[in-house]
Design goal:
Blueprint (H helix, E strand, L loop, with lengths): L7 H26 L3 E10 L2 E9 L2 E9 L2 E8 L2 E7 L1 H6 L5 E3 L1
Antiparallel strand pairs: 1-4, 1-6, 2-3, 4-5
């Protein structure tokens, strides 16, 4: 199919796909460059939750459910770089702000 023949919805769908791929690449690069250890700057709990994402293409709607488990997150900083990781509850309770964190 020639892109010149696409209708508005096909262009929007293509733009969304490109945008999602760009976000995925940014996320992967960010995780690769994240430090493995640092000084704890924050702690945050996120309960488990589910999201529903729907897309429509050619008048057909497709929905996808994503489950996210609960997360006890430790936020840390090392040499000017920020990092964050989910840990188990026991480890989360033992770590204090200012402690040294290592994955």
């Amino acid at each position: 199919m020639n892109p010149r023949d696409w209708d508005v919805f096909e262009w929007i769908t293509a733009a969304i796909v490109v945008f999602m791929i760009t976000l995925l690449v940014i996320y992967v690069v960010d995780e690769i460059t994240e430090p493995d250890e640092g000084v704890v700057k924050g702690k945050h709990y996120t309960p488990s939750h589910t999201t529903l994402t729907c897309t429509t293409s050619n008048k057909v709607t497709t929905c996808h459910t994503t489950y996210y488990p609960e997360c006890w997150e430790i936020q840390y900083r090392s040499e000017g770089e920020n990092g964050d990781d989910c840990v188990d509850w026991t480890r989360y309770e033992k770590i204090e702000i200012g402690d040294w964190f290592h994955k």
